[in-house]
Write a structure and sequence with these properties.
The protein is mostly beta strands. It folds into 2 domains: about 1-30, no CATH class; about 35-190, Sandwich (Protocatechuate 3,4-Dioxygenase, subunit A), CATH 2.60.130. Helix content is about 10%, strand content about 25%. It is built from 2 helices and 9 strands. Strands 1, 4, 7, 8 and 9 form a 5-stranded mixed sheet that branches. The chain has a 4-stranded antiparallel sheet with strand order 3-2-5-6, with no helix packed on it. The protein is globular, with a radius of gyration of 16 Å.
Length: about 190
């Protein structure tokens, strides 16, 4: 994977291409809200919504044969507000398919995993579709061993529906970049301990 230039990366985050004609100084001056940092407040909570299902399968890839949609890898770290990584934190993900539909009968685009010893996680999925009233998002529950679960959502930069979604929180934007296989996103979770 070839790393994008700063201008290309900012362009992806802002939803504009490097060939957009925007001056490099405009892109370079843009300040992005980072994901919540350790030492600060915990990741904001959000509604679970109507589509959560318990007992999802354990898996790091939600991809299935013949699945439509743009490939996406989301990775990051789970830490406490004390900045220490949270090993074996449970992350349970669920999302809509490329057409904006949730699988309520089975476990398509649903799964859970545990962080490694350094608190890292990595999820292979697709970019979720949009459905009426919502912007593009992925739901997640994050829980430290013997801790309280944090229920939240991750959002995508450059989405027109972000401004119209009453639940959208810019503090929950992933950092997003294109790559040869689709897109790569980063989001670090901070848990109150």
């Amino acid at each position: 994977m070839v790393a994008p230039s700063r201008r290309e990366f900012l362009g992806v985050i802002l939803g504009v291409s490097a060939a957009s004609g925007l001056a490099p100084s405009v892109l370079a001056q843009t300040t992005l809200t980072p994901t919540p940092a350790c030492g600060g407040p915990a990741t904001p909570t959000q509604t679970e919504g109507p589509y959560f299902k318990p007992s999802s399968p354990e898996r790091v890839s939600l991809l299935e044969p013949e699945m439509r949609g743009r490939r996406l890898v989301v990775a990051g770290v789970v830490r406490g507000t004390d900045c220490k990584p949270v090993p074996r934190a449970l992350l349970d993900f669920w999302q809509a398919d490329a057409g904006g539909r949730y699988d309520n009968a089975g476990f398509r685009l649903r799964g859970h995993q545990l962080t490694d010893a350094e608190g890292h996680y990595r999820l292979e999925t697709i970019l979720p579709g949009v459905y009426p009233g919502r912007t593009r998002h992925i739901h997640v529950k994050v829980q430290a061993p013997n801790g309280r679960p944090l229920t939240t959502q991750m959002y995508f930069p450059g989405e027109a529906n972000n401004a119209r979604d009453g639940l959208f929180d810019p503090a929950l934007l992933v950092a997003l970049a294109d790559n040869a296989d689709g897109a790569a996103a980063r989001f670090d979770f901070v848990l109150a301990r």
